[in-house]
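Hi L.,

As promised, Solute carrier family 22 member 15:
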Amino acid sequence: MDLEEAFQVVGEFGSYQKRAVAVLVLTQVYMACQSMLIVLVGYTPEYRIQQQDGTSLSQQELLQHVTFTEDIDSIATEWFLIKQQAYKVSLAGSLFFAGRPVYLTGLFFEVVFGYVSALAPSYEVFAVSRLLVGLMNGGIGLVCFVLTQEYVGKSYWAMTGTLTSMTFAIGIALFGALGYFIQPWRSLAMAANSSVKTSERQLTVLNYMAVRNGNATSNLMLQQVGFAKARNQSKRGTGVLQLVIHPVLRLRTMVLMYVWYACSLVYYGLTLGASESSGNRYVNVAMYGLVELPAYPLCIYFINKHWAGRRKSMASFLGLAGTACLCTMFVPESTGNLLSVTSLALVGKLMVSAAFNIAYVYTSELYPTVIRNAGLGVCSMSCRVGGILAPFVPSMRALHTSMPFTVFCLSGLSAGCLGLLLPETLNAPAAETLEELGSPTRSRVLESKEKFNHRF
């Protein structure tokens, strides 16, 4: 039997899978706290510089003449990251996303480096520790998602993937509350850090699932899907190389990489800009987390409708996110609460959250089993590039107040349009081998030129 038939025997979502998925999704709370740490510990309050007119001060002299207007404890106030040093706050946030690693090992070292962040004696140590936490965090996030998909049957992929994203959003909201009650930035960093395949191997795992689910079987055998074909594929190249040389996968990967990049840039850019929005920054951070929650029921509803599906839903949500960011340019900052820059930014965050969640589920369905991990890994790397750039986008307000939202608008709209080039995967069987991508029974938008010319 193939893998999908095996899950029908052992149980697609039994008691064992429920416990395993629960552990994996709860890890997202810890990861969300680490991702959002720089928003609060890097907050820079207003300040005054007392100096005589026409007198230029050195960096050391400047520190003696700075007075902050708020009694705030952050890395900006402790190490005076202002004026020419202000970029270091965004840099620390960017270094976190520069990182990309096995689940338990990564989690252990992420906790270790998280405590280094909280105890850092200087900015340089803090920045390096954020890079190292990001190295672990990025790998854990991808592994968590892949495991929540591989532990269950295909019919539950959308649900488990959505649960992962939803728990991350809850983690952001909890971090906003945590920041309100724990004011010194070192204590906040400490608290955030404390919330925390071969066929033979597949058979072992599946049999163990069967026993734990009460569906024990002694004759479970997986068929070698396309074994001869797989050997031919190995001669042509496997893994990441196939994403480059295979005509269908090459175009598909290029589109997905840009979609993931845009989702990450807009998602984290809007979230990291929460502290710069008008109003209480702790409430803003919590709201930017809570506003995501309605996105996930919307995802589940739309991606399972034949008239919407994965492709149209993802493209539409990206387009709506870009449109919401566009509308912020026409709303004055002093407008009321119902229609304001903050409320439109929250709408944009809701929409891009939905698109990002669909991108995770959709990508895992677009790649055949033999290449799925490589495809997700490449897309995740592109996602990290968006995350690296995201902390710097809100600071583009210095050029023009609408500049950050212009970047978010163009990214969302362009990614939505490109997403329409991808094929629909709703109700389509998951491909096992690369040859199945060219199967005539599968409707694919991004196909090789030969098939395109033959069809028309």
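Residues 126 and 196 are 20 Å apart (CA to CA).

Thanks again for sending the construct details.

K.
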